[in-house]
Each structure stands twice: as structure tokens, then as C-alpha cells.
Amino acid sequence: MTAAMEQWSWPPRFDDGYFPQADSRYWFPHRETMPQAEREAAILARLQAICAYAWDHAPFYRRKWDEAGFHPSHLKSLEDFEEKVPVIRKADLRAAQAAHPPFGDYLCVPDAEVFHVHGTSGTTGRPTAFAVSQGDWRAIANAHARIMWAMGMRPGDTICVAAIFSLYMGSWGALAGAERLGAKAFPFGAGAAGMSSRCAQWLDILKPAGFYGTPTYAIHLAETAIRDGLDPRRFGLKYMFFSGEPGASIPSIRERIEDLYAAKVYDSGSMGEMTPWMHVGGSRETPGMLCWQDIVYTEVCDPQTHRRVPYGQRGTPVYTHLERMSQPMIRLESGDLTVWTNDPTPCGRTYPQLPMGIIGRVDDMITIRGENVYPSEIEAALCQLPGYGGEHRIFITREGTMDEMMISVELDPERWERGEDVRRAFHAQVAAHLHSMLGLRSVIEIVAPNTHPRTDFKAKRVIDDRAAFAEMLRRQEKVSS
Ligand code: 8LQ
């Protein structure tokens, strides 16, 4: 087994000088293409080792598992794992850090070994800190380099990281991967005023092969470049890889970005806590994302029972680190929604796939008159329409006793200028298309280009005032009773 699996050890150790043959499709040829049953046997052994390690080092897991009646010695199969090991949630991590600041009682290495501190944005409530040891940072760099290799990036390529360099793991993970790959790392960043124009200018000068950011930002950046008189197709980009939000696995959005830049688009990304977050990530030949099971073990589960759903079905990813020592996540429930499959892949890797990427968060679902719809489905439908101006907002409100959805859609500048008739025709087209794609009618508003603010990070397109509305009704009832 050891000879058969390249650089597979616990604790994880990596040869930082290792590179595959230049013409190899795979970074670790055997590990990526081995029969699934063989890999699963290795994963089970690793899960046993990690559970024993967490039991010894993390009161957090001992407490959780005691409550659930689980002990690492009970783990004899992957079915035991899903049946007996309880999921943990982001709220559990937050509570553990509040009780044991700053890193929580699931930090498994001495405090002095913490090498980087990152964390959640914490826009609502207490932020959660990610403590990453130096060894884990190497594991992250090696895993990301391996997946970036699968996307086609090679030593010597220039890779522009166009995401904010703060606590967000996206930018840092891409940077660590680029460095380990022997690429020319170009950490342009994002987030300061005027940066998009300068980024476009730099891309035009530097002609990098690779680009990392969010899909929303890539579209905004292309719009900015075009406004500044630059042609993004002449940036010379070959590989654009994304994370952070749905888009890169949605055909109409992927094609829009590929068309804007004349580059190939790849999807990746799970959660900051799960870094190396590219462990769900695309490869050059296989659409959507692969679950790189020997980096993080992904189970797509029923959101209620947390048991794996059959391949072909929808569920929520539950993730377990196999190569992290500092804050290993064991069955972290993502709260996202995806479909997993397990078909032979064009790239020959024997990993399960997420062919549609991650659709959204389970609680992002909008229910209007009994129909369920995800914001990413609305975006996908709009991106299919010639004339779509690149941004929209979804307003959900309670009109009388019924929930209503209003979608405010930008028209592109050229059509907008053509006047009222063109605008009206676009209105009818949007209404009909959304009705047929979503199965429900919504109120449509067509607005001028650039009406809605752009972002250089993850888009927030849903404005939901149903809760405020219900609250107002309650207040009124109190006053009148
Ligand atoms: N999320 C992340 N990646 C996604 C993707 N490719 N498709 C759809 N939704 C995605 C550091 C990486 O960018 C991962 C990341 O964004 O981590 P965060 O900031 O902790 O946010 C995690 C959430 O972003 C996930 O739960 C998905 O809802 C979304």
C-alpha cells in the first residue's frame, strides 16, 4: 500500500522538491487513478488514525463523541464512520472558541506551533479563527499545487491571485499552491478602491497564464477592462480558476467568462475551515469538480440523517480532513447543496464528481408559492439571455399573504441605448424565460447598465424582507390587540 500511494503518510509529510514528469497528466499518478476500493481501504485506515489523534488531543471531539457514544476503536468501516461519528457544525466551532479562546479546544498542536491565523469574515456574530501549523501550511501548498497541475498550470506560469489578502483563505490558498507549483506568483489582491482598473492594466502588461478570484469578480473585472479600452481576450489568460460562490460549474456563467477572456474556466472550493479548500476542484478534462478523497474525505449526505445519499442524488457535503494536524475537521457539515456522481471521468481520475459544482446553501433556497428555487439557478437562467447586462437583484417580499419575488435585471449598454421598444422586448423575454426555467412567475424590472453595485468578492444578490415584514405584522397585531 505504501509504495502504491505517493507521499501518503500520517502525520502528513511532503517532499517539497517533488514534481511529476513534465508530460504527466497527474501529479501523483497512482494515488489519483487507483481503484476506488483500494483508496477507500487507505482512507479508512487514515480515518482511524485521525479519530484516535483527535481523541487524544482535542477535548472538543472527546466531548462530542462521548455524547454520541462513539469511540475511535468502534471505527471498522466507512459505514461505521457515517453512522457513528456525529457531524460538527460551524456553530459548534464558534461555541468552542468562545469557551476556549482564541482557537477552541479542538486545536491539536501546541499554541507555539501556530504559523498562520485566518478566519471567517464574522459579519454576523463572533468570527471563528483558523489556526494553521507550519506543517499544515505545507500540506495545503502541496495539495493545491497538485490540483492546479490537474487544471493545466505548470512551473513557470504566471498566476494572478485577484482576491483580497486578508483573513480569507481563498487568496492565500491559491498563493501557497502557486508557490509550491514553481509558478510566478502574482498576488495582485483585490478590495481597495481603483484596484480593478489597475488589475486590468497589469493583466494586459503581464499576460499571466493563470487567474484566481470569484466568478462575480471576473465578470466585473472584464467590464472594467472593456470600459477602460482594454480587451480581456488579449490578456493571454489560459486558466481561470474560481472558488467562493456558484458560477464556474454553471454552463451559462462559465461560458460567459470563457467568452469574455478566451480562457478555460475551472471550479473549486469548499470552505475556509476545510483548507486545502481545492479538495473539491476541477481538472482540465472533467467538467464540474472532483472530490479529491485522499486529501479531504467528502460524503454527500442527507441533510437530516447525515448518511450518504446514493450517487446521482442531491445532498449536503460533509467533509473530513485527512492531511491536517492543527485543527482537523472531522465530519464538518457544510450546509451546501450539491449532486454527486461516480462515473468514469474523462481525465481518468477515480474520484467521485460534483458535475454541477455546489449549487448553493441549503438555507439559500427561496420558496415562492410552493416552488423552490436557488439564487444560482436564477443567475444561470439570466446568463443564457443575450442582452443580460451582467447584474441583477432578487427581492423577496410578502405581498398580502403571498410571498412574491421581484427580479431587477440590467440590460446591456448597447441594447439599453436602443430605446423603449428594445427594453420592453427584453422585459417580455426575461419574464418568459424565467417562467419556463423556474416554473414560477415573478415580477420583472429592467434597469440600466451598472444600476446594481459590483463586488470584487462574493455576490449578495438576494434581498429578503419577508422576516422584516412578518415582524411588522406581529407588531401591528400587538398594537391592535
Ligand atoms: N462556496 C465556496 N466555494 C464554492 C464554489 N466553488 N461553488 C459554490 N459555492 C462555493 C476559500 C474558498 O474560496 C472557499 C470559501 O469560499 O470558503 P468560505 O469563505 O469559508 O465560504 C464557504 C462557502 O462558500 C461554502 O459553504 C459555499 O457556500 C461557498
- DSSP summary: helix tally: 14
CATH superfamily of the largest domain: ANL, N-terminal domain
Strand ordering within the main sheet? 4-3-5-6-7
Content of β-strand: 15-25%
Overall SS class: alpha/beta
End-to-end CA span: 73 Å
CATH-level-2 architecture of the largest domain: 3-Layer(aba) Sandwich
Main sheet summary? 5 strands, parallel
Number of domains: 2
Q: What is the β-strand count? A: 21
**CATH C-level of the largest domain:** Alpha Beta
Q: Could you characterize the architecture of this molecule?
A:
It comes from Cereibacter johrii. Pfam families: AMP-binding, AMP-binding_C_2. GO terms for molecular function: ligase activity. This protein has 481 residues and is α/β, with parallel strands linked by helices. It has two domains: 361 residues, Rossmann fold, CATH 3.40.50.12780; 116 residues, ANL, C-terminal domain (GMP Synthetase, Chain A, domain 3, 2-Layer Sandwich). Helices cover 35% and strands 21% of the residues. It contains 14 helices and 21 strands. It has a five-stranded parallel beta sheet, with helices on both faces. Strands 10, 11, 12, 13 and 15 form a five-stranded antiparallel beta sheet that branches. β11 and β12 form a beta hairpin. It is globular and about 70 Å long. The protein starts with 28 loop residues before the first helix and ends with a helix. The site of ligand 8LQ has 18 residues, from α7 and β15.
